[in-house]
Amino acid sequence: MPEQHNIEYKQSWRDEYLKWICGFANAQGGKLFIGIDDDGIVVGVDEYGKLMDDIPNKVVNHLGLVADVNLHKKENRHYIEIVVPTSSVPIAYHGIYHYRSGSTKQELKGIALQNLLLRKIGRKWEDMPIEGGTLKDLNEGTIQLFIAKAVEKNRIPSAAGEMRIDVLLKNLDLITEQGQLTNASMLLFGKDLMKVTVTASFKIGRFGKSSHDLLFHDIVETNIFDMADKVMEVLKTKYLIRPISYKGLERLEPLEYPESALREAVLNSIIHKDYSSTYIFLRVYDDRLHLWNPGSLPEELSIDELRKEHSSYPRNKNIANVFFKSGYIESWGRGINKIIDACFEAGLPEPLIEEEQGGFSITFLKDIYTEDFLRRYDLEERHIKVLLFMKANERISNREYQELFNVSKRTASYDLQLLLEKNLILKIGSTGKGTYYVLQRGNKGAKSAAKGQ
């Protein structure tokens, strides 16, 4: 059995593996096997009798944990299983806090350590009280807007409009038992977010060909309940274009990226952001739009699982609850699939979804014909070059293909047929000199390439 997020194999024991036990305890628990190699094959362990005494004592003495240590035997080879429970309190090894994330062990420092300490005592950053914060620090207009939307969606009673603000916030878990405003209440409805964090703003930049070529930028500084609308307004008026097309006599001017998908992505970045960290960044390029927010996925989910039916695991549950009640989001974990479907319907490829630099990113593409995108799929170098050539020159013939790559007609025909089968290009004409090939720009090509077909 291969290693997993909660299983680690070691061929022999070393005291430094107490760090791994520490990491399991601070995460979701796990098992450490001694005498098994990385492929899950039992290689056996020497002096297993002594280790059965030493390991439990070292775990207790160095970590303050009680772990089950079991001896097993397979094909006359002994191996040891260490079962590590999840600790209800933070665990340190020689003053350093370790954490098991995925299949790696991390040393927690700064904000990451702060969040672990809060989580272990049943608190989150959004729940922390604001010293000296009062109802006067909140924007009453934004609160009334929330009430109107939530009542319209039948997610709070109509009588909420007559309710005292402090009672409403109490019902939304945005005030502590002692009557103090929380970080979440100020983020959602506050007049000045600097009272809780200097990085609540949403940064938008227009770039040239590279991330070093910043042409102009904007910073959206408002409470986060109003933020998605303000971000979309700035995008539509300053950063994105509306290509004109016609359906019969009807003039169509949709955004170059589907508006519903962009809005869903912007909302997700605001709701699931780690607000104890840095800003949200939205970078607009000629051929793509890249949105990144700090805060990795919850341990229960992976990038692949986001595309499947899954439950919702909000980082900021009280913030997410306000957006749900107002009808901005659902609570079914369907956000990513809605984004992907909207892109396909617009004839665009599936967005690139990744975890990077301690955060979550989504990249919208205008088309699939970029070098970075094409390299993700089963294409040879020559195939990538011809697609980029066609993008720049609109079309190519079989003869031009032969001359461009110095290949035979048979090879050119084979390559072009392969690209046809992958729905990356279209053939115009049947046979003869007038036949040429163009890129498949529509929905079919986007879907096929996104699936790696």
UniProtKB/TrEMBL annotation:
Where the record annotates domain Schlafen AlbA-2, the positions are 3-108
One short Pfam name that applies is SLFN_AlbA_2
Q: Which InterPro entries match?
A: RecG_C_sf, Schlafen_AlbA_2_dom, Schlafen_AlbA_2_dom_sf, WH-like_DNA-bd_sf, WH_DNA-bd_sf
Source organism superkingdom: Bacteria
GO MF, one example = helicase activity
Q: Which UniProt keywords apply?
A: ATP-binding, Helicase, Hydrolase, Nucleotide-binding
**Statement: the UniProt record of this protein carries the keyword Hydrolase:** yes
Key word ATP-binding present: yes
Write down what this protein is called. Answer: ATP-dependent DNA helicase RecG
